[in-house]
Amino acid sequence: MRTADLLDLYPDLPVAEPILRDFGGKRAFFGPIRTLRVLEDNALVRRLLETEGRGQVLVVDGGGSLRTALLGGNLARLAHENGWAGVVVYGAVRDTLELAQYPIGIRALAPCPRRSRKEGQGEVDVPVRFAGVTFHPGHWLYADEDGLVLSPTPL
Ligand SMILES: O=C([O-])CC(=O)C(=O)O
Q1: How far apart are CA 74 and CA 148, in angstroms?
Q2: Which of 21, 83, 107, 133 is the residue whose CA sits 20 to 30 A from 147?
Q3: Which annotated residues bind Mg(2+) (predicted)?
Q4: Which ipTM score applies to this complex?
């Protein structure tokens, strides 16, 4: 269902502030949320995307840093191959031409050509907050051209 229709039905659903740009090959996507909190280190992003996605959406709180890219073409291909519905990054991505070729949702603040560290620092499946909303692991995310909506249950 379109996010606008969801909001007509459920006007109180949390809507993220429109600060994220669309980089993926699929503009509308949805799924249950997994989360990560990292800072300029994307080893955990790879570790999660290496697992079966089963239609989930990985939400990465990168602290809003635009100094390094947390996702690029290789990780986007991995996400697609492993069945993730999308990746939402509060931070930067790179290889943007390649990202647009994979039929998954990808949202991020901006592009940045510099790679991230690979140390594996960060937290997995903790509630993360950005764009004025809190993303809880296990809650559902619905995204399309109009916005990004959250729900504690599938709609
Ligand atoms: O490996 C990285 O740090 C990110 C990247 O460029 C890719 O996913 O291709």
Answers
A1: 25
A2: 83
A3: 95
A4: 0.92
